[in-house]
Amino acid sequence: GYRWAAGQRSKAPGAYREAIRLLSVIVGRDPQDGESRGRLALYLAKSGEEKPALEELDRLNALKNPGPGGSFKKALTYEVLAQRDSALRALGDAIRAGYSLREIESEPELASLRSDVRFHQLLAAAPQR
């Protein structure tokens, strides 16, 4: 929340460091937890730790089923890392896995992605839920 709150952005790095620490413990206990692994990759990317974020994405991509949340976090991470094609592929995976279209449409990290016609094509092709 600090990242988006007016006047609070300077608190975000510390919050990300703590989240990264906690998520590292969680994924250490359950390496198949796609949602937590996705969050870890995303927070690493938001912290400017591109190489560790990409390494975590590799581990997430190796999971048989990262789940809808893991796929969505993967899309966010790729978008934060300015890897648009990969972000769109992961977003398509999240949509096919049943991730909430409402959340996708309102996610602030995807503001720039919404200007890409492929984003709208993915949403238009999504099954209505």
| Secondary-structure content class | mainly alpha
Q: Shape from CA axes?
A: globular
* Mean pLDDT figure: 90
Q: Helical element count?
A: 7
By DSSP, the count of extended strands is: 0
Helical content class: 55-70%
Query: Radius of gyration over alpha carbons?
Result: 14 Å
Query: How far apart lie the N and C ends?
Result: 28 Å
Tell me the major beta sheet: none
What does this structure look like?
The protein has seven helices and no strands. The protein is 67% helix and 0% strand. By secondary structure, the protein is mainly α. Helix 1 runs antiparallel to helix 2 (34-46), helix 4 packs antiparallel against helix 5 and helix 5 packs parallel to helix 7 (117-125).
